[in-house]
Design goal:
Its EC number is 2.5.1.-. Keywords: Magnesium, Metal-binding, Transferase. This protein is of the alpha/beta class. It has one domain: 3-Layer(aba) Sandwich (Undecaprenyl pyrophosphate synthetase), CATH 3.40.1180. The protein is built from eight helices and six strands; from the N terminus they run αβααβαβαβααββα. Strands 3-4-2-1-5-6 form a six-stranded parallel β-sheet, sandwiched between helices. The two termini are 25 Å apart. The structure holds 3-methylbut-3-enyl trihydrogen diphosphate (IPE) (2 copies) and magnesium ion.
């Protein structure tokens, strides 16, 4: 093991040599799973094939996260803006939880993983909601990794929704305006039960947050990984965790 200076760019071989510090695994890792369409395009396949392959990556990464002792894994699966995509693509993505959970639920149960969601789930097609609810129900007593799918999720919509429910409580005199602080406001967000992510990973080389957890990522470390999501694997996840472990988090202090 060797220490590196904060600003030093890490070469691949440095990272390979470095051991993962199992005492410094982020509790909460959030991932923007991007690049499914480009993966398919590279292979002259329809975009939906990329989404299918992306689902296989979700399985691999969930297992790895569980093995590593990550406590919360939030995966951005469908944004409030993704409805603008062609109808057949949206329809296919909506069928994925049904397919995914049919084949993967027994393994999730065996691994003690608890399935949860953030996002406007009730606006999804009925069959999608049913599959998600079944997975939540069957894993609700599990105490291991919390696997949180962000489905029909948007950070701005979440804040608007949270502000509305806060306002309703103020109006009902359950709360006074002077009680409102950051914790009170964020307790009205969908992510209320979870700590903020220490680490955000976005695959496919894009460097933006696309309306994901815009409040919660205030002090997260961002890692932009070049792999397209279907090509992302355990090795890449480990690489990201090592890069994270070499970051110095300061939270505005010195
Ligand atoms: C991410 O892959 C999955 C979803 C947004 C549902 P994309 O479908 O955005 O893939 P690219 O960005 O077009 O390659
Ligand atoms: C973000 O990816 C949403 C998900 C991964 C679900 P997009 O592909 O939709 O984001 P933009 O359009 O590139 O910002
Ligand atoms: Mg994309």
């Amino acid at each position: 093991m060797f220490k590196k200076s904060r600003n030093k760019k890490q070469s691949q071989s440095n990272l390979d040599q470095q051991e993962l510090d199992l005492h410094n695994i982020p509790k909460h890792v959030a991932i923007i799973m991007d690049g499914n369409g480009r993966w398919a395009k590279q292979r002259k396949l329809p975009r939906i094939k990329g989404h299918y392959q992306g689902m296989q990556t979700v399985k691999k990464i969930t297992k790895e996260a569980s093995n590593l002792g990550i406590e919360y894994l939030t995966l951005y699966a469908f944004s409030t803006e993704n409805w603008t995509r062609p109808e057949n693509e949206v329809k296919y993505i909506m069928s994925l939880p049904v397919n995914f959970l049919k084949t993967f639920l027994p393994e999730l149960i065996e691994k003690n993983v608890k399935v949860e969601t953030i996002g406007f789930i009730d606006d999804l097609p009925q069959s999608t909601v049913k599959a998600i609810n079944k997975a939540k129900e069957e894993t609700k007593h599990n105490t291991g990794l919390k696997l949180i799918f962000a489905m029909n999720y948007g950070g701005r919509a979440e804040i608007v929704d949270g502000v509305k429910s806060l306002y309703r409580r103020l109006e009902a005199n359950e709360l006074s305006i002077d009680d409102v602080d950051e914790d009170v406001l964020s307790s009205h967000f969908m992510t209320q039960p979870y700590p903020d992510p220490e680490l955000l990973i976005r695959t496919s080389g894009e460097q933006r947050i696309s309306n994901f957890l815009i409040w919660q990522l205030s002090y997260s470390e961002f890692i932009f990984n070049e792999k397209l999501w279907p090509d992302f694997d355990s090795e890449e996840l480990l690489k990201c965790l090592k890069i994270y472990q070499n970051r110095q988090r300061r939270f505005g202090g010195l």
